[in-house]
Write a structure and sequence with these properties.
Layout: E1 2-5, E2 8-11, H1 19-44, H2 55-67, H3 86-98, H4 101-128, H5 132-148, H6 159-178, H7 184-194, H8 202-215, H9 220-241, H10 243-249, H11 257-263, H12 268-281, H13 287-307, H14 318-333, H15 339-344, H16 346-362, H17 368-374, H18 376-397, E3 402-405, H19 408-413, H20 422-430, H21 436-445, E4 448-451, H22 465-470
Parallel strand pairs: 3-4
Antiparallel strand pairs: 1-2
Amino acid sequence: MGFTISNFTISDVSDDPALGRTEAALIGVFAVIAIYFLVYPVWRSQFLIEIWLTEGWNAYFQDAAASGANIYPSSVDLIVNNYPPLSFYIIGLLGSIFGDNLFVGRAVSLVGLVLVSVEIFLCVRTLVGGVFGPAIGALWYAAIMSHNFTSYVGANDPQLAGEAIMGAGLAWLLARDKAGKSALPALMIMVVGGFWKHSMVAIPLTAVAWLFIRHGTKAWRPVSLSAAAAAAGLAFCGAIFGKDFFENLLVARDYSLDHVLGNVGHLQWSALALVIWACWAISTRTTAAKFTALHVPIAFLSCILQWLGDKVFGNAEFDLILALGIAVGVACESVQSTPLAAYVGSSRARTIMVSLLALRLVVTDRQEPALVLFSSKFRSTIQAGEQSVLKEAGQVTALNGQVYCTNKLVCRLAGKSFIVDDFKVEQMVATRIVTQPQLDEILALRKIVTFKSDLAGRGIVDTSLSQALMHVGTGWQF
């Protein structure tokens, strides 16, 4: 059997008796790729090194939240907390139960990655049905995040867990909307996500726009009630934490187009997925195409706008990668509507799409999982970083008074208070609140000693496979 679109005859999926085996094989290949790239962040998460710059920063505020101390500093302090409060209290609580907040936060990050992948599967399945497309979208997301965002996956940073909360809201909204039920509970989940991490805006913006497109004025009630809940949450935070809450969230930051130009090159990793989805989306007018045509551009614009701010890095892409995971999934499941499938058949078209996505991920010099699995020298480098942190913590413990550590894990391990935040002092200089000489004078007046850490303890290692191979026989052991 078959059907026609324009002048092309497209075979129905059920016409190819080998399609089931092909789909299973493609899913299996992508599952192996996703697990392969996940090896490095999972293995690395056990070590006491600074995986990302915010790890110690988050751990300090999680400690404060768990102890009942103030988590929003005064404007005269040299530290700032420009995140909403929920993640600090939840991770702090879990840390008091299961151990160090640092490692609890890392575990939550890894769980968040898995949950978002599941949520992508559910979103795609709601939009187009099937198993193949949902599985590819979910596995592509897990693979690209584990490979290209190693500073965040498995790090003590709230973004991935926040994406999981937002993703749960989106999956629930699509399912409830399809069933003709109220979107309000799903929107409330997104409100909770906003109090976990405030920069995840693409999903709630898409949800609101989608509801108005689908239901017109009927969308006002759930949208208004969820907006009221968000406003009430902000008012509650203001009542609990005072004006410091808002001053911290609105801390001065330098904005420039140069910051976008410095980050935009990283989009090369997801560009192929964007092209594959766009080629599919322009050839169909399905509900899935309309939804993703709303979601992907909003996520892309959100990413670019956030990159205008100084010190905004890969996590600005997370909303976009999630949106593209859904977009890739619906494109792979509904490939039969494309001209490519008309020429080569649905099975071959899917094979081509998935193969291109897989090749874009694996054809790279950065092969950390291979180094973890086969290079004892690489493993010892990470282990040496942990020893460096422990050694430096002992040195900092011996220092009298207040200490500013370039690696916050060192000062935290040494029992020193958090008194200087790199981000805040850098932005004070960048926005001309103070000059660098004035900042140096402030540090001197407050008798703050600066301790510069070794790069190994900050997780800065060479992950180039070609460089490792060049050193075979000269120190590197495979």
